[in-house]
Amino acid sequence: MTIRVILVDDHPVVRAGLRSVIDAPDHITVVGEASSGEEALAVVDELEPDVVMCDLRLGEGIDGIEVTKRLNARPKKPAVLILTTFDNDAEIVAALNAGAAGYLLKDINPEDISTAIEKASRGETYLPPEISSKVIAAMRNPGPKLTRRERDVVKLLATGASNAQIAQELFVTEATVKSHLVNVFTKLGVDSRSRAIRVAEDQGLV
Protein backbone atom coordinates (compact mmCIF):
# COMPACT_ATOMS: atom_id res chain seq x y z
CA MET A 1 0.00 0.00 0.00
CA THR A 2 1.29 3.44 -0.91
CA ILE A 3 1.77 5.90 1.97
CA ARG A 4 0.36 9.31 1.03
CA VAL A 5 2.30 12.31 2.36
CA ILE A 6 1.71 16.06 2.47
CA LEU A 7 4.61 18.50 2.93
CA VAL A 8 4.13 21.68 4.94
CA ASP A 9 6.95 24.23 4.83
CA ASP A 10 7.01 27.94 4.02
CA HIS A 11 10.14 27.56 1.85
CA PRO A 12 9.52 26.18 -1.68
CA VAL A 13 13.14 25.03 -2.04
CA VAL A 14 12.86 22.94 1.13
CA ARG A 15 9.62 21.36 -0.10
CA ALA A 16 11.23 20.53 -3.43
CA GLY A 17 14.18 18.88 -1.73
CA LEU A 18 11.96 16.89 0.58
CA ARG A 19 9.74 15.78 -2.28
CA SER A 20 12.73 14.33 -4.16
CA VAL A 21 13.79 12.39 -1.06
CA ILE A 22 10.35 11.17 -0.01
CA ASP A 23 9.23 10.17 -3.50
CA ALA A 24 12.30 7.94 -3.98
CA PRO A 25 10.83 4.79 -2.37
CA ASP A 26 8.07 3.22 -4.48
CA HIS A 27 5.71 2.83 -1.51
CA ILE A 28 5.77 6.50 -0.42
CA THR A 29 4.46 9.40 -2.46
CA VAL A 30 3.96 13.14 -1.90
CA VAL A 31 0.37 13.95 -2.85
CA GLY A 32 0.31 17.63 -1.88
CA GLU A 33 2.11 20.62 -0.41
CA ALA A 34 1.25 23.63 1.74
CA SER A 35 3.20 26.77 2.60
CA SER A 36 1.28 27.75 5.73
CA GLY A 37 -0.54 26.16 8.64
CA GLU A 38 -3.93 27.31 7.42
CA GLU A 39 -3.25 25.98 3.92
CA ALA A 40 -2.12 22.67 5.44
CA LEU A 41 -5.47 22.16 7.14
CA ALA A 42 -7.30 22.81 3.87
CA VAL A 43 -5.03 20.48 1.85
CA VAL A 44 -5.47 17.71 4.42
CA ASP A 45 -9.25 18.08 4.12
CA GLU A 46 -9.00 17.78 0.35
CA LEU A 47 -6.43 14.98 -0.02
CA GLU A 48 -6.75 12.95 3.22
CA PRO A 49 -3.08 11.93 3.50
CA ASP A 50 -1.69 9.24 5.79
CA VAL A 51 1.19 11.41 7.02
CA VAL A 52 1.77 15.16 7.24
CA MET A 53 5.40 16.28 7.42
CA CYS A 54 5.31 19.76 8.90
CA ASP A 55 7.87 22.42 9.74
CA LEU A 56 7.70 23.87 13.24
CA ARG A 57 7.71 27.52 12.23
CA LEU A 58 5.63 28.60 9.28
CA GLY A 59 5.89 32.38 9.20
CA GLU A 60 2.66 34.27 9.75
CA GLY A 61 -0.37 32.36 11.01
CA ILE A 62 -0.52 29.13 12.97
CA ASP A 63 2.66 27.14 13.57
CA GLY A 64 3.46 23.45 13.32
CA ILE A 65 2.43 22.70 16.89
CA GLU A 66 -1.00 24.26 16.35
CA VAL A 67 -1.37 22.38 13.04
CA THR A 68 -0.57 19.15 14.88
CA LYS A 69 -3.05 19.89 17.64
CA ARG A 70 -5.88 20.70 15.22
CA LEU A 71 -5.27 17.66 13.04
CA ASN A 72 -5.16 15.36 16.06
CA ALA A 73 -8.54 16.70 17.19
CA ARG A 74 -10.17 15.38 14.01
CA PRO A 75 -11.98 12.03 13.84
CA LYS A 76 -9.99 10.98 10.76
CA LYS A 77 -6.53 12.26 11.58
CA PRO A 78 -3.26 11.81 9.70
CA ALA A 79 -0.02 11.19 11.56
CA VAL A 80 2.06 14.36 11.90
CA LEU A 81 5.85 14.42 11.78
CA ILE A 82 7.58 17.66 12.76
CA LEU A 83 10.65 18.34 10.61
CA THR A 84 12.59 21.40 11.73
CA THR A 85 15.98 22.95 12.43
CA PHE A 86 15.03 23.74 16.04
CA ASP A 87 15.92 21.27 18.79
CA ASN A 88 14.72 23.31 21.76
CA ASP A 89 13.58 20.98 24.57
CA ALA A 90 10.41 22.95 25.28
CA GLU A 91 9.29 22.87 21.65
CA ILE A 92 10.01 19.15 21.31
CA VAL A 93 7.86 18.40 24.35
CA ALA A 94 5.14 20.79 23.17
CA ALA A 95 5.01 19.09 19.76
CA LEU A 96 4.75 15.63 21.28
CA ASN A 97 2.10 16.81 23.73
CA ALA A 98 0.15 18.17 20.76
CA GLY A 99 0.15 14.67 19.28
CA ALA A 100 3.11 14.60 16.88
CA ALA A 101 4.17 11.11 15.82
CA GLY A 102 7.78 12.21 15.60
CA TYR A 103 10.19 15.12 15.80
CA LEU A 104 12.97 15.20 13.21
CA LEU A 105 15.79 17.64 12.52
CA LYS A 106 16.45 18.73 8.95
CA ASP A 107 19.95 17.25 8.94
CA ILE A 108 18.45 13.76 9.26
CA ASN A 109 19.57 11.05 6.82
CA PRO A 110 17.15 10.54 3.90
CA GLU A 111 16.63 6.86 4.72
CA ASP A 112 15.61 7.81 8.26
CA ILE A 113 12.91 10.09 6.85
CA SER A 114 11.42 7.07 5.06
CA THR A 115 11.59 5.04 8.26
CA ALA A 116 9.85 7.82 10.20
CA ILE A 117 7.07 8.03 7.62
CA GLU A 118 6.57 4.27 7.65
CA LYS A 119 6.37 4.16 11.45
CA ALA A 120 4.05 7.15 11.61
CA SER A 121 1.70 5.59 9.05
CA ARG A 122 1.43 2.53 11.32
CA GLY A 123 0.54 4.64 14.32
CA GLU A 124 4.01 4.41 15.84
CA THR A 125 6.28 7.16 17.13
CA TYR A 126 9.69 7.91 15.67
CA LEU A 127 12.30 9.91 17.55
CA PRO A 128 16.00 10.00 16.60
CA PRO A 129 18.33 9.12 19.50
CA GLU A 130 19.38 12.73 20.08
CA ILE A 131 15.74 13.80 20.35
CA SER A 132 14.81 10.87 22.58
CA SER A 133 17.55 11.85 25.01
CA LYS A 134 16.17 15.39 25.15
CA VAL A 135 12.66 14.10 25.83
CA ILE A 136 13.92 11.87 28.64
CA ALA A 137 15.89 14.75 30.14
CA ALA A 138 12.84 17.02 29.92
CA MET A 139 10.71 14.41 31.70
CA ARG A 140 13.25 14.08 34.48
CA ASN A 141 13.58 17.83 34.77
CA PRO A 142 10.15 19.36 34.11
CA GLY A 143 9.91 22.59 32.13
CA PRO A 144 11.08 26.02 33.15
CA LYS A 145 9.45 27.74 36.09
CA LEU A 146 7.95 31.13 35.38
CA THR A 147 7.53 33.51 38.28
CA ARG A 148 4.02 34.64 39.17
CA ARG A 149 4.61 38.00 37.51
CA GLU A 150 6.05 36.34 34.36
CA ARG A 151 2.91 34.20 34.18
CA ASP A 152 0.80 37.33 34.49
CA VAL A 153 2.70 38.90 31.60
CA VAL A 154 2.21 35.81 29.37
CA LYS A 155 -1.51 35.65 30.21
CA LEU A 156 -1.89 39.26 29.13
CA LEU A 157 0.20 38.58 26.02
CA ALA A 158 -2.31 35.90 25.08
CA THR A 159 -5.09 38.51 25.07
CA GLY A 160 -3.18 40.53 22.47
CA ALA A 161 -2.19 43.25 24.94
CA SER A 162 0.71 45.53 24.04
CA ASN A 163 3.64 46.23 26.36
CA ALA A 164 2.03 49.53 27.33
CA GLN A 165 -1.29 47.83 28.12
CA ILE A 166 0.45 45.13 30.14
CA ALA A 167 2.35 47.76 32.10
CA GLN A 168 -0.87 49.62 32.84
CA GLU A 169 -2.66 46.44 33.91
CA LEU A 170 0.17 45.32 36.22
CA PHE A 171 1.01 48.83 37.50
CA VAL A 172 4.63 48.62 36.35
CA THR A 173 6.75 50.43 33.78
CA GLU A 174 7.13 49.32 30.18
CA ALA A 175 10.82 48.72 30.89
CA THR A 176 9.82 46.23 33.57
CA VAL A 177 7.48 44.47 31.14
CA LYS A 178 10.30 44.23 28.57
CA SER A 179 12.57 42.76 31.24
CA HIS A 180 9.96 40.13 32.11
CA LEU A 181 9.56 39.28 28.42
CA VAL A 182 13.30 38.78 28.01
CA ASN A 183 13.24 36.36 30.94
CA VAL A 184 10.20 34.52 29.57
CA PHE A 185 11.74 34.18 26.10
CA THR A 186 14.98 32.87 27.59
CA LYS A 187 13.28 30.35 29.88
CA LEU A 188 11.00 29.03 27.15
CA GLY A 189 13.67 29.05 24.44
CA VAL A 190 11.57 31.13 22.04
CA ASP A 191 12.11 34.27 20.02
CA SER A 192 8.65 35.74 19.57
CA ARG A 193 5.55 36.67 21.52
CA SER A 194 3.39 34.14 19.68
CA ARG A 195 5.84 31.31 20.36
CA ALA A 196 6.03 32.28 24.04
CA ILE A 197 2.25 32.07 24.32
CA ARG A 198 2.08 28.74 22.49
CA VAL A 199 4.86 27.01 24.44
CA ALA A 200 3.61 28.33 27.79
CA GLU A 201 0.10 27.09 27.04
CA ASP A 202 1.26 23.70 25.78
CA GLN A 203 3.35 23.15 28.89
CA GLY A 204 0.59 24.29 31.22
CA LEU A 205 2.66 27.20 32.51
CA VAL A 206 -0.23 29.64 32.25
UniProtKB/TrEMBL annotation:
Response regulatory domain boundaries: 4-121
Protein name: Two component transcriptional regulator, LuxR family
Annotated keywords: DNA-binding, Phosphoprotein, Transcription, Transcription regulation
Gene3D superfamilies in the cross-refs: 3.40.50.2300
BP GO annotations: phosphorelay signal transduction system; regulation of DNA-templated transcription
InterPro entries: CheY-like_superfamily, NreC/VraR/RcsB-like_REC, Sig_transdc_resp-reg_C-effctor, Sig_transdc_resp-reg_receiver, Tscrpt_reg_LuxR_C, WalR-like
Record-linked CDD domains: LuxR_C_like, REC_NarL-like
Residues modified as 4-aspartylphosphate: 55
Pfam families to which the protein is assigned, alphabetical: GerE, Response_reg
Keyword Transcription carried by entry: yes
Molecular functions (GO terms): DNA binding
Record carries keyword Transmembrane: no
SUPFAM superfamilies per UniProt: C-terminal effector domain of the bipartite response regulators, CheY-like
HTH luxR-type domain segment(s): 139-204
